[in-house]
Amino acid sequence: MVEINDEERLRRAAKSLRNMIRDKKELNQLLLGNFETSDEELKQCIVVALIDWNGSPPILQPRTLANHPRKDLLLQKAAIEALQGAGIWHSREHMPSADGGTSADDHAKAGEYSGWIERYYSDYERKKSDMKTALNIQEAYGQMGLASEYSGSLSMYGETW
For the chain, how big is the Rg over CA atoms in Å? Predict the structure, then answer.
């Protein structure tokens, strides 16, 4: 197995996140074929997700992209961060216009983003709490639990990281 460095792992995780939230140029017709969120912004969302995991109780051994026990949860939190950023942008750019009986508002999406964020956030927090509690108990009993097929190197949305 080829070992990848942290920078490459973050790049691959960002690509997985982009696939997860369906931020693809060919799907972004209202954005004239551009990404809604840049690669750097997606990487920042992943770093924020790691900070959230490592800073939330119960405090366990710090995790990285390489050894995170639930990469799907990490992506879910990163998606929440990406949706919040996009929702803020759409709120800020919201300016309906009308001309000759035709109206347009390509930024009237903030409400939809808010709904997705609420659903994702409550689901994420519940799963994160359950997982961290289980890991805390496992660590207290001296690693008696079994390894999960979801830990380690896992292909997420087309990328292995």
Answer: 18
Q: Which two tokens stand for residue 160?
A: 């292995």
Decide if 131 is inside a domain: yes
When divided into structural domains, the chain yields a total of: 1
DSSP letters of 8-45? HHHHHHHHHHHHHTT--GGG-TTTTT--SS-HHHHHHH
| 150 domain residue, yes or no | no
CA–CA separation, 86 vs 75, rounded Å? 16
Q: Is residue 87 part of a domain?
A: yes
Q: What are 2's two structure tokens?
A: 């080829």
Q: For 77-96, what is the mean pLDDT?
A: 80
Summarised one tens digit per residue, pLDDT across range 82-91 is 999 877 766 7
First to last CA, the chain: 12
Predicted structure pTM score: 0.75
**88 domain-assigned:** yes
Question: Residue 103: is it exposed, middle or buried by C-beta count within 10 angstroms (0-12/13-18/19+)?
Answer: exposed
C-beta separation of 60 from 139 below 8 A: yes
